[in-house]
TrEMBL record:
Pfam families: adh_short_C2. One of its GO terms (molecular function) is oxidoreductase activity, acting on the CH-OH group of donors, NAD or NADP as acceptor. This is NAD dependent epimerase/dehydratase family protein. GO terms for biological process: fatty acid elongation. Belongs to the short-chain dehydrogenases/reductases (SDR) family. InterPro entries: NAD(P)-bd_dom_sf (IPR036291), SDR_fam (IPR002347).
């Protein structure tokens, strides 16, 4: 009886991602790394892409050692521009298999607080946070549809849900990504591709801004801020974003379309 229950539980929890190819833009560290890990744990095949070839290859080797060479593929290039995106998607399908899911997770562009933002900084933020997301959606969604359907996922931020004091270009572009996602979902569902967004809160990982804040000279002040602002009284982890992503990319989320899901420990009010 116990073995039968265990088998049923395992069957019930299966996300149905085994050997499905998921393409991740921005996968070598942080949230992208966490998403890739969660997908690999669910049996998916993951196409890792990022700009930095050395860090990307280190990530590919790490995952290949843990999950098998056949489960990972990588492509280094500029995933903010159409040329790099199109080349990566085409190479993935040719070498790795038909894409059934994709994640737009290209990282933020540095920008100062306030209005003193140059045209170059503003344009850099647009390309990094918004244009890259649209360009991957434009390249990826028709392919996912042609391959039998699946899911496309944007990674946004709670800075796009409320004014939190972040750089203007960051909050503005993340809010635009949220709107882009819900707008695309209005018609992409008819092509058998669900489109959703995760808006992470304060996610801590090696090399990230929150590690510097949490261990720097104002660490105590930041710890108090987290306890005050986040009901769960802690930072989030890349794996917590990754597990949410794996669910939204899977058939278990088959009636979720056009959602913006805050994963922030309850910070957003």
């Amino acid at each position: 009886m116990a073995s039968m229950i265990a088998e049923k539980l395992e069957e019930h929890m299966d996300l149905g991602l085994t050997d499905k190819v998921v393409f991740i833009a921005g996968a070598s560290r942080g949230i992208g790394h966490g998403i890739a890990k969660s997908l690999l744990e669910e049996g998916a095949k993951v196409a890792l892409t990022a700009r930095g070839a050395e860090a990307l290859e280190a990530t590919r080797k790490e995952f290949a050692a843990a999950y098998g060479e056949g489960k990972v593929w990588s492509f280094a290039g500029d995933l903010t521009q159409s040329e790099g995106i199109n080349a990566a998607v085409e190479a993935c399908e040719k070498a790795f298999g038909p894409i059934r899911g994709a994640v737009a997770n290209v990282g933020l562009s540095p920008s100062p607080l306030g209005l003193d933002v140059s045209d170059e900084e503003w344009q850099g933020g647009l390309d990094q946070n918004l244009n890259s997301a649209f360009r991957l959606a434009r390249a990826g969604i028709p392919r996912i549809s042609a391959n039998g359907g699946g899911s496309f996922l944007f990674i946004s931020s709670i800075a796009g849900l409320a004014s939190l004091g972040s750089p203007l270009i960051y909050g503005a572009t993340k809010a635009a990504v949220n709107h882009l996602s819900t707008s695309i979902a209005r018609f992409s569902g008819k092509t058998n591709v669900r489109v959703n967004t995760i808006a992470p809160g304060n996610i801590i990982f090696p090399g990230g801004d929150w590690v510097r804040n949490a261990t720097g000279p104002r660490a105590e002040a930041w710890a108090k801020w987290i306890k005050r602002e986040v009901p769960l009284n802690r930072f989030g982890t890349p794996q917590e974003i990754g597990d949410t992503a794996a669910f939204l990319l899977s058939d278990r989320a088959s009636f979720i379309n056009g959602a913006v899901v805050a994963v922030d420990g309850g910070q957003t009010r």
